[in-house]
Amino acid sequence: MTAATSAGPRRFTGITRPRLALALPLLAATLGVLAPAAAPPAARASATQQSMFQDDNLLLFRGDETADRTLRELKGLGVTAVRVTVPWRAFAPDHRALTRPAALTDPTDPAQYDPVVFDLHDHLLRVANRLGIRVLFNVTGGAPAWATGRRGRGARKVFVSLQYKPDPKAFRQFVQMLGTRYDGTHTDENQGGAKLPRVDMWSIWNEPNQGAGLQPQWERTPKNRYVPVAPRIYRGLAQGMLSALRVTGHGGDTILLGETAPRGVNRRTITGSLRPVPFLAGVLCLSAQSLAPLTGRAASDQGCDRRSASRRLAVTGYGHHPYSIVSSPDTPDPDPRDITLADAPRLGRLLDAGAAEGVLPAGLPYWWTEYGWQTLPPDPVRGVDPLRQAQWLAEAERQTRSDPRVAALTQFLLVDDLPRDEPGQTLERKWGTYQTGLRLADGTAKPGYDAYRMPFAITAGSRPGRPATGFAFVRPVAGGAVTAATTLQLQHAPAGSEEYADVGAPVDVPASGLLDVPIPMLEPGRYRFRWSPPAAPAPPRGGIPGLLAPAPSVVAPAVFTSAVASVPAP
Fold first, then answer.
1. Band of the pLDDT at 309, cuts 50, 70, 90?
2. Is residue 34 in a domain?
3. What share of the chain is helix, strand, coil (3-state, %, to 5)?
4. Residue 547 lies in a domain
5. Which has the minimum average pLDDT: 127-131, 221-225, 276-280?
6. What pairing do the DSSP bridges indicate for beta strands 134-140 and 150-151?
7. Assigned domain for 26 exists
8. What is the 3-state secondary structure (H, E, C) of 497-521?
9. What is the tally of structural domains in the chain?
10. Is the pTM of this model over 0.85?
11. Which CATH number do you get for residue 428?
12. Structure confidence at residue 534 (pLDDT)
């Protein structure tokens, strides 16, 4: 995320969260009436979509015990993969120096880096590997100062920022170092000497269409024309990273282009964030309006050469952050240059046009690599009601799993950030952190916690007194946290009542965790599922701290309930 919609790596220290209660408030996802039956029809939704999560604060920056506890909790929720930030500057020697350190004679050699800088990611990889959770490395800036461009002319050139014109050659060398170190054969230098797990999922930079991620977004030419230059810079970074992964044996890995933010601005400045449609069109050397190849001055501005063999970007997917901020997941953005979750066809047309020109492989899948809603409360400035967050999380799951082109949906944050504590700050500045978590900062579960674990949504447009279809997903079953057979029980509370009664027979949950159920007659009131999971399997052992005993936050009560869905009277 950027200042408006996302967070980068957060090295918070000296902050602790209270212990999480053993019995968590179990609220709820949307549900309709099942026809009495022992087993529902097979769901049409995708069973292969990754359940991905990102919370760098908990997974990297709060210590090993917090990382272990968080990974175990995510496993219990059914998470299959995590996305973590790999910031170049955090690994580079003397990253604030304006010239590359003389001792760094070969930036592609892991031995020339301080082994301590790898420890956070190494530990995460080992524990995630033991739990069967995949790890996506989002390799991004800022760059070390010595690998950035300068602004000005001659002796008056000055350093601008760690995001300004990162050197693609230096970036390629850094990624080559990572590819070498995480090829599955490298021995950890200072944490026991064991071989490190292989990394096989990568993505290129973070939100390069945002001024907080890559600069300049725009540049003024000597003839006073404003040209969007971030696409050209990003293309060079992508080509460098792809080359580095190929030479280190990662050419067959999952590699994502993009990682773009959903929106931009109309300001043509160094930090004036580009909207994703014109940004991606520029990367692919296409017109954002016609999707035809750029020609003439426009092609020259973007450094496009249709004859160059290096123009092909051999990626396996496109990463995007389709936040809709305060709108539902099926609400298109009114600006045709933006891409929220409901605007997937806009992205598809661009990717397919790039494939038609030979720049991209055909049929690239969508990887939604950051997503969620900020809640109000706790944020008093911007957000949605926590019950609405729960409802929309379930609807987004239904929406994405009905699209065969979607490969992953990523929840951004498990636990809300704390507000800033700075003298004299405005309310907006204080709450400029991120409250998209499934828990409040004190650990209390929001309704979205249960909605994430077991989303359920009724098909859009369904009305009381008519047939409908219900989508349900028992994520812990699909994610392998629970392997034994289990059942769901639909319950209904009439309008105005708090008393739930069973509806129909218990429903068997398939191994995919997905249920797509016809509803013969939708009734007014509220619906929920009750789920009694089997006993959790014994935790893995083998000396990894934090894995020898269940974390308090993941002790399962006897019964879980889904989020509640209200069905109004006709």
1. low
2. no
3. 25, 20, 55
4. no
5. 221-225
6. unpaired
7. no
8. CCCCEECCCCEECCCCCEEEEEECC
9. 1
10. yes
11. 3.20.20.80
12. 74
